[in-house]
Amino acid sequence: MERTVRVCWEEVWQVDGYLDHLALSLREQGVEVLHPHHPEYGSAYAIFHYHVPHFHWPGSGFYRVSFVAFLRFVLRFFKRKLLGKKAVWTAHDPFDNRADRLLSKICNAMLARYCDAIICHGYATKEMVVHLGAKRERISVIAHPSFVNSWPNTVCRAEARELLALPEDKRIFLFLGNVRREKGIEELVSLFKRVQDGSAMLVIAGEAADGALAHDLKRECWGCEYIRTYFGYVPVPLLQVFFNAADVAVFPYLRIGTSGAVILAMGFGKPVIAADINCLGEVVAETTGWKYPAGERDVLEKCLRQAMKVSDGELREMGANAFSRVKDATWDKIAAKYVAVYQSVLAADQAQASDTGQ
What is the SS3 assignment for 311? Predict the structure, then answer.
């Protein structure tokens, strides 16, 4: 690079190690990255020293707090713009899958219109951002990075099942991720009860921010020997245990933009059942599992029944295809594309300054 690019993560929260892995790969390519946990974050030095403020999940900082927090974010954003900073936004979920919250909509529409570059992890997300007012030429579609070789993967199937006290002779279906209503877990439990034939089990693992939902699910699953719930944060060392114990991963989302959990499951070589919604439809193929129209209970039920009946060999082949589909999106390759975006906005800034000088 002609000069060191300095990037500051803005308004972010930790999701599946995404930012840690990305920051590490960017630093290996010569980019300076300032994380919000850094002691200099927010200082005058950081504001003036870093070229690119990069936004990831801005709504997480205010959507459940207050209008004052939202206003503070808007002022911070435009202060950086007035200082001549080139803002970049990775639009993980432009319409905020948690709910139709007005502040999140306003925030994302603002970023869509005023960021100098926008990164999307799929073409469906790109269209969502265009709908919010972004110019197409400012949007780069970059694949969601794969977590292959990012997390430990040394526990075999038998050992994983022993650790979770799961039977060896059952076909295990796994939902792993944050437990929220828009993930469709209630529908999954209801349908799994209907299709249960004694040959399979459903495992639900993840942190439940919605206590009422967790209570409802526990009550719904009470007494079901074929459904196990593990509510709580799943630490990194246990990811391999859950995925390697499973035969099929299920993601019955009702609303979603981008899902790192689906990419994670495929990176562990698991066939997936997933709603054909936004970017998921671009990742999951017929050769890697099953996809169905989001919210279509009858079709999801059919997918579950098919996944219970196919042979072990067919599942292994689907899992191998899933792994092959995501393995090449390594962090270093994805980071290089991020660097190209940073350099592009900075080069445009330099060209504009040169024209103004003339």
Answer: coil
C-beta of residue 342 within 8 angstroms of C-beta of residue 118: no
For tokens 């690119």, the residue is 52
pLDDT tens, 71-113? 888 888 888 888 889 999 999 888 765 544 677 788 889 999 9
Structure tokens at 53: 């403020």
Helix, strand or coil, per DSSP, at residue 178:
coil
How many Å from the N-terminal Cα to the C-terminal Cα in the chain?
25
Q: Could you tell me if residue 353 is inside a domain?
A: yes
Characterize the bridge pairing of strands 32-34 and 6-10: parallel
Question: Do 170 and 198 share a domain, yes or no?
Answer: yes
**Rounded to two decimals, what is the model's pTM?**
0.88
Q: Examine residue 150 and state whether it is found in any structural domain, yes or no.
A: no
Q: State how far the Cα of 230 lies from the Cα of 239, in Å rounded to an integer.
A: 12
Nearby residues of 229 by Cβ (< 8 Å), 6 or more positions away: 203, 204, 205, 217, 218, 221
141 lies in the same domain as 161: no
DSSP bridge pairs for 289:
272
* Backbone torsions φ then ψ of 203, nearest 5 degrees: -115, 130
Read off the pLDDT of residues 133-183 as tens digits, 9 standing for 90 and up.
999 999 999 999 998 888 899 999 999 999 999 999 999 999 999 888 889
Can you give the C-alpha Rg of the chain in angstroms?
22
Cα separation, 58 vs 293, in Å, equals 29
